[in-house]
Design brief:
about 35% strand, alpha+beta, about 140 residues, single chain
């Protein structure tokens, strides 16, 4: 199976009301989700809001697990926490699932929207001009 086929099957299950655990790859969600080591638990999205981490069909050609940074009507702007610049765009209908938890390498589950994680994500977003340096330090640790 290709990655897209696996993701589409996960989406089908989420649409049926099943929670799905999906491994993530890449560094685009550092430091909050570590690709290759952690997974996200996906559930059916209700009304997505700014700050939510979602699985979305972005820019009409790929699936991403990124954070919503803006909603303007039906248009949604996404950005990975580990990205220095650049955003993706989709519509509300392109949001296929919301990530509710992160499962770490020790199989411990962490809720993505507790007070600490929400505050940290807001602060991290404001630190965009400094992310390059902070991520370089993070990767060396």
């Amino acid at each position: 199976m290709t990655d897209n086929e696996i993701i589409e099957e996960a989406i089908r299950l989420v649409d049926e009301g099943v929670s799905v655990t999906l491994p993530v790859n890449g560094n685009s969600m550092l430091p909050f989700i570590i690709g290759g080591k952690e997974s996200v638990i996906l559930q059916k999205p209700e009304l997505p809001k700014v700050g939510d981490v979602v699985l979305a069909w972005a820019d009409g050609y790929r699936y991403v697990v990124h954070r919503i940074i803006r909603i303007n009507g039906d248009r949604v702007t996404l950005m990975g926490d580990g990205n220095l610049a650049g955003t993706e765009h989709c519509t509300l209908n392109d949001i296929k699932a919301i990530a509710t938890h992160v499962v770490d390498a020790k199989e411990r589950t962490h809720y993505l929207y507790n007070r600490w994680r929400k505050s940290a994500a807001k602060i991290w977003f404001r630190l965009r001009p400094m992310r390059r340096y902070l991520l370089a330090i993070y990767r060396r640790l």
